[in-house]
Every structure is written in C-alpha cells, then in structure tokens.
Write a structure and sequence with these properties.
With 162 residues, the chain is mainly alpha-helical. It has one domain. It has five helices and two strands; from the N terminus they run H-E-H-H-H-H-E. The chain has helices at 16-31, 43-59, 68-83, 107-122, 139-154; strands at 36-37, 157-158. The protein is globular. 28% of the residues are buried.
Amino acid sequence: MPGTQSDHRVLHFNTVADCREEVRRILAAEEAGQLQSTGNWTAGQNLSHVAAWIEYAYEGFPVKPPPFFVRWILRWQLPKMLKSSMPRGVKIPGVPGGTTGMDDVPVDQAGARLLAALDRLESNENAPYTSPAFGDMSHVDRVQLNLRHAELHLGFLSYPEN
C-alpha cells in the first residue's frame, strides 16, 4: 500500500549495473514479502514507469515537447540534474495523471521489464527518439538521466536491509 513521500530513500547509481542490482534487491524483497511502497504509487507502477521512460527513446515518446521557453529552462538545468537528482512531484502539464507509463502490474512483471530496459540502455543501441523535454542528448547523458530517474522512483520502494 502506498505511503508518504517523506519515507523516500536516497539512492545513487553510478552505473546501469548499480541500478540493475537495486532492481534485483527489490524483486527479492517482494518475493520474501518484505517490499513496501512509501510513495503514492505501487511498486509495480514505479518499476513500470522507469522502464517505460527508458523504452520511449527507442520506441517513441507519448508526450509532446513543452513550450520552447520551458525546454530552454530544462536544458539549462540538465547538467545539475545529471550530477545530483531529479525533483519529486513534477507533473507534465496536460498529461492525465501528470505522467505516463505507470502501469499497475505485478512487481515481478514490472521488474523484468525494467531489467530488460536497463539491458537495452546499456547496450549502446541507437535511440532514435529525442527527449521531448531535453532534446538531443549524448548516450552518456541519456544513461545518467535515466539513472537519476530510477533513483527517484526506486527510492519510494523500501525493504529491510541486512
């Protein structure tokens, strides 16, 4: 059951492998009956959402770019975001629910989807679609942005740490 945003864990992934390991810990916690969602979404929604936003660069984004001045501001903020974190609670104007890709599916299914998306991200496969918010990005920057996004959403999933 979803909880509050105040229970957010601070995560930092240096590599796709770091993120993949956290997804595996989340899946193990779910299998052991110890996974909790501390935000407004279920664990399946968080995992699906992160996977979807990785996949969009390969399959097409379902949202239109924001107005030019918003893209300009976001592009200016990108370097800081790539190095630190993404803000919580951001909603995309005009998009029902404020974002896309948060399918409420079983955790094992959503986790498998995210692991596959992370493999694709790490593969250096050409991503033909540019970010509607940030435009063209290098592969390195795209990986870093997706890691910051994963840190944000996976931080809402908690489990006992041994």
